[in-house]
Amino acid sequence: MARDERVTLLEVYQALPEEQFQSLKFLLEGRVPAGVLLPASRPELCRILLQRFPGNSLRVTAGILRQLGRLDLIQRFQLPLEEQIPEETPREPNGETPEVRGNPTSGCHPGGIPAPPMNPRRLTEKDLMQVAQRLGKEWQEVGILHLGLERSRLEQIQEENPGNPVLWNFEMLREWRRRERHEATASQLRSCLEPARLDPGILDFLQSLQGN
């Protein structure tokens, strides 16, 4: 059984493009030390997970694949899924509407469009990763012009994640989400990104989240 588990794990990892394999390792950092993960090859990552999660490595991997939007691999290899733990949604004080909703400098950038008063939920890391995978190479332009982030912070993100454009995009979006707090919703991000020259699929994806 252990051999079957290892073989399946390796086949799953080999089916991932290099960028998604690196993203998978990044998303595992909360469970496995980064110093062990980052240099690991695909066979080495199999060994690490089998040691740390005996009998449960496929379930852990399936949870990360779901965050990456690779449900096709979960189905193809018939991976067991973990219990989904909903991300905690920040709540506003009872009966209060935050001042920031009426502040025209909040949201995307000075002069940007504020979030509408009725918003369902804050974007999750899974949502951000799916947007990050669709963003093109002009990520710094998007970050500076449309998300109002500092160039120095974007350069720091690039240095911390060498050679992985998807993680640059993901960390940039996380930085925006940290700043916006409860305002970091699908409709708000869509308003920020609408003027940018991006894959239309990004706006469609964010639109689909607005009703959730």
Automatic annotation (TrEMBL):
Coiled-coil region? none
Death domain sequence ranges: 147-194
- InterPro entries documented for this protein: DAPIN, DEATH-like_dom_sf, Death_dom, DED_dom
Q: What processes in GO biological process is this protein linked to?
A: regulation of apoptotic process; signal transduction
Where is region (Disordered) located?
82-121
* Pfam family, any one: PYRIN
Q: Which Gene3D superfamilies match?
A: Death Domain, Fas
Q: Where is the DED domain?
A: 4-79
Q: Which domain of life is it from?
A: Eukaryota
**Which PROSITE patterns does its entry note?**
DEATH_DOMAIN, DED
Q: What is this protein called?
A: CRADD protein
